[in-house]
Amino acid sequence: MRGHRPQALTVSLRGLLQESKPQHVLRRYGTVSSVSAQSAAPPSIFSNALDANAPRHNWTREEIKEIYDTPLMNLAFAAGTVHRKFHNPASIQMCTLMNIKTGGCSEDCSYCAQSSRYQTGLKATKMVTVDSVLSAARIAKDNGSTRFCMGAAWRDMRGRKTNLRNIKEMVNGVREMGMEVCVTLGMIDLEQAKELKDAGLTAYNHNVDTSREHYPSVISTRTYDERLQTIANVREAGLNVCTGGILGLGEKPSDHIGLIHTVATLPSHPESFPVNTLVPIKGTPMGDNAPSPFDATLRTIATARMVMPRTIIRLAAGRTTLSEEQQVLCFMAGANAVFTGEKMLTTACNGWDEDRVIFEKWGLRPMESFEVEALRELVSSSAPPPIEEKPVTTAAA
Ligand code: SF4
Questions:
Q1: pLDDT-above-70 percentage for the chain
Q2: What residues does ligand 1 touch, defined as CB less than 6 Å away?
Q3: Tens digits of per-residue pLDDT, 256-307?
Q4: Where are the transmembrane segments (predicted)?
């Protein structure tokens, strides 16, 4: 009877092993498909978001939390599925961001190199000329960027008539090149927003940065509601809203949920949601912050994609810290825009050549200017969209 153990002995040995070893040490052999399907079963709100054919604006924080807390592989895969339903997954918007007025800002944003309150070694400058902006935009266009963004470091546009006139000239000139144009100029009122719209502006960026709860730990010189008022002015003027946040400001995961909840419950979802990760700047109060982990970036992007299916999700500051594979994972999970060029405001930026290589390798292509114009109209409409996946093309940059 060699090799044949009495069944009772086998059972008692197994019992002994189970009693003496912690559960995680026990080895059980099987296939992945034998893993309990129950533990991976998506909750209903998750399924609803996965199956949705139109954006919704009445998200509760609890619902967003349920999606955010989904096991990351499930979440990223589902977000990728939603992304393919609402967008061409091969199309990535390439934006170049130029600082048109550097430093000397009166605000106290704890992460910012351009605040005059911190010793960061950054030299404040006056506003650049219209000609220098137009030549930078031309270079960006020649390298494949289809959106040109301009940022000025100041609190608001109050009393800046000359600046506004010059900026309108810049906007008009860039628009004449066939590019989309975005500006980020601090707080603006409705009249200023309308003037910019008339000059040809496509979008206005004004980030809410983080959740309402965490916001006072980051900035004290303007309130969350003031930020939301500027966003309302931009929307009312008929401009596209670009608003997002920064990860790594000492926040908790619940603040990522709060950030997404804020923008996902606006009267219309933002056309663009930038996801930045902090680039710590020595001399600022957040100069020694620990880096935000990649899984938080991926989770935030994937959740935003499921909750705001038509929005362009922008992989923004901090992209230089991501490997090629991490960036591609973000694209698979719903990110479809990047900043590219020589510099991103005051920090380093992934360059056009580098992006061209990645795009070619992974079958991506730069988004055309105004490719998402129809999408934007749908973003502000409550009508159910026609869902039709565009063919994937692999045109090189
Ligand atoms: S983020 Fe903008 S508003 Fe805040 S300090 Fe920097 S430049 Fe000023």
A1: 81
A2: 105, 107, 109, 112, 114-115, 153, 186
A3: 999 999 999 999 999 999 999 999 999 999 999 999 999 999 999 999 999 9
A4: none
Residues spanned by the domain of 294 = 84-379
- Among residues 95, 227, 242, 305, which one is catalytic? 242
Active site (annotated) includes residue 175? no
Residues contacting 239, CB < 8 A, separation 6+: 193, 196, 197, 201, 202, 203, 204
The pLDDT tens digits for 197-218 are 999 999 999 999 999 999 999 9
Q: Is 276 strand, coil or helix?
A: strand
Torsion, CA 259, CA 262, CA 267, CA 273, rounded to 10: -10
The answer as to whether 90 is a domain residue is yes
In a domain? residue 65: no
DSSP string of 363-393, one letter each residue: T-EEPPTTTTHHHHHHHT--SPPP--PPPP-
Residue keyed to tokens 């790594």: 248
pLDDT band at 31 (very low <50, low <70, confident <90, very high): low
The predicted pLDDT at position 32 comes to 55
In the chain, the number of structural domains is: 1
User: Which of 101, 106, 107 to mutate to test ligand 1, by most ligand atoms within 8 A of the CB atom?
Assistant: 107
Domain at 136, CATH number: 3.20.20.70
105 is catalytic: yes
User: How far is residue 53's CA from residue 331's CA, in Å, rounded to a whole number?
Assistant: 21
Q: Is 349 an active-site residue? A: no
User: Where is pLDDT greater, at 3 or 188?
Assistant: 188
* Whole-angstrom distance, CA of residue 260 vs CA of residue 59: 10
**61-102 residue pLDDT tens:** 999 999 999 999 999 999 999 999 999 999 999 999 999 999
Say whether 182 is catalytic.
yes
115 CA closest ligand 1 atom index: 5
Closest by Cα among 314, 361, 305 to 333: 305
- Measured from the Cα of 222, ligand 1's closest atom is 3
Does the annotation place 95 within a ligand binding site? no
| 209 located within any domain | yes
Catalytic residue among 95, 182, 330, 349: 182
Q: Which of 215, 197, 22 is nearest to 107 (CA)?
A: 215
Evaluate whether residue 5 is within a structural domain: no
User: In whole numbers, what is the pLDDT of the chain averaged over residues?
Assistant: 86
- Cα 111 to ligand 1 centre (Å): 9
